[in-house]
Amino acid sequence: MLDMLPQQLVNGLTLGSTYALIALGLTLVFGVLLIPNFAHGELYMLGAFSTYALVGAGVNFWLAVVIATVIVIALGVVLDRLVFQPLDHSSSLSLMIAALAASIILQQTATIIWGSEPRTTPSPIPGVLRMAGFSIAYFQIFVIALTLAAWGGVWLVLNRSRLGLAIRAVAQNKGAAQLMGIELRDVRLATFAIGALLGGLGGAILSANFPVYPTMGINPVLKAFVVLVLGGIGNLWGAILGGLLLGIVEVMVAGYISSQLQDVGTFMILVLVLLLRPQGLFGRVVLER
Amino acid sequence: MHSRTRCYLIPTALLAAACAATPFLNDYVRYVATLAAIWAVLAVSFDVLLGYTGYLSLAHGALFGVGAYAGGLLTSRAGWNFWLALPVCGLIAMVAGIIVALLAFRTKGLYFAVLTLGIGLIGHQMFFVAEDWTGGVVGFVGIPSPPALPLLTLDPAGNNLIISLLLLWVTYLAAGVFVHSPLGAASLAIREDVVLAQALGIRIAAARMTAFAFSAFFAGTAGALFAAISNFVAPESFAVMTTGFQMVVLVVVGGMGTLWGPILGAILLTTLPETLRVASNYSLLAYGVLLLGFMLFAPSGIAGLLKKAWRARQTRAAVAAPVARPATEGVR
Quick check: B251 contacting A, CB < 8 Å? Predict the structure, then answer.
């Protein structure tokens, strides 16, 4: 029983890093723009499908990832322009319903284009690293590294660039930011584009790790919302830690209790955190509303 | 009191008219109308929660399923009478709903939606897991049809339609009672501003819990009736992204915060795909597009559009005599 523990931890970390990667984009868009972007999961799905289609057409995997990410960024910006900007002054309920609608439209469009059967892309980094207590695919090590790199990249943009300063200013106080001469439209565009980039890149890379199908985005985005609750909205570090924690808990529940209860375990955590510590597990919320 | 009486008279008259028309319809029309009525029950009761309190629940697809499976178990395995099973299924779904609500009302806004979405997904999964009770992937077969109504000699399709219309009538009247009660007024206050409502001493917990329990009860009865009419249920009918999502679409397209709007939404969205013969692959896409379109361009739904047209017409009638002003909007 316990000799499985190192392997379970490693599995949990790999699963958790994918949650963290998706949560990163979601927490940014939600934290700054207050958009509950259910369709983030569909951006992830479209990143995966674009990569799948490009690889199928004979494009090199890494090039396909780049192209797919660019496609998803463009789609994300269009999504914001068509769906969320017109509702800028509406209630959060309207935004939520519109996001849900956008999410369904993208899912169903993908179903019509590609059908609903799952597809797979061969892993670009084959091979498995075998250690004493566990083994891990090289590609999974890459995914963990990518998640950390994505976190580092977003942190650098937010804290070491003029754009990041503007984004943080808008997140803190829209009105005051505008008075300081910050162009809200540009900040919005940039934030949404970064969010879409993270979602699209995540999907593009993970298409080599998970089966690709039109509704593949629902579960991860839901987990990412749980991660947001765990980590605190707009808290990047919280998103990473929350994602890893969630992944580990899920794998433990599946491994030691029952695989059918994996998702139930997730939502028990969500409920417990909401009941006991609504501001998130990891300290105070950075961008408090 | 005049308008209050009208609230009860108009639906009753419509019910009588629909029942009178039933013998003259063919079986296909009856079947579509039956489905529309069941969807309308779901939409009206769901609107009491979404439209009146402003809480977006995505767990109702699963609550509909709880009612459906409870109906199947009670009538086929336990041999209960359908008329007894129907309200009991509502109560079972209501108890499940209250448990969900006790957890979910700890949150609000987006978190409420996400939490109920999660609960909806788990519920859907449980229908697969609890194979002994639900039949799992294969589905639950052999659910007896609703019994023939006394005094009426109708074939099964007509009988189903009248039972569904009766349930819709009961739902609508009950929703009217709730909405016009102090709890309904409190619900509206919650929708507009929770903090202000609390500050004014409005007991928001009781109001929103009643609204949730109400919607769960009727989702359960609709589920039991749906199961009896279909004779068969399978988990795919109760997924978040199908039924749970469709309830939101019906209410938003019909008009949130009115009781008759969701009925129009249910009728329109049930009959449209049938009459247009759209391939079923496209129906969810069409639902999504409609939902988004209404959200962006007509957030108050069909009911809002009709009200606007009606008001414009009245204004025109009042203005028409002295001034010949060109009509600018709302002409149909």
Answer: no
Q: Does B190 touch chain A (CB under 8 A)?
A: no
- Whether residue B90 is contained in a domain is answered as yes
CB A98 within 8 A of CB B295: yes
**Domains in chain A, number:** 1
Q: Do the domain assignments include residue B124?
A: yes
Residues of B in contact with A274 (CB under 8 A): 106-107, 111, 115
Give, in order, the Cα–Cα distances in Å from A30 to each of A108, A226, B252, B306, B326.
24, 13, 24, 35, 46
Is B95 domain-assigned?
yes
pLDDT, one tens digit per residue, over B85-140 is 999 999 999 999 999 999 889 888 888 888 888 888 888 888 988 888 898 888 99
Asked if residue B85 belongs to a domain, the reply is yes
pLDDT at A48 over 50: yes
pLDDT per residue as tens digits for the range A187-232: 999 999 999 999 999 999 999 989 999 999 988 888 888 888 888 7
Please compute the mean of the pLDDT values over residues A264-287 and round it to a whole number.
68
Q: Which residues of B touch A108 (CB under 8 A)?
A: 281-282, 284-285, 288
Task: Evaluate whether residue A249 is within a structural domain.
Answer: yes
Paired residues of A136 in beta bridges: A129
Separation CA A22–CA B296 (nearest Å): 27
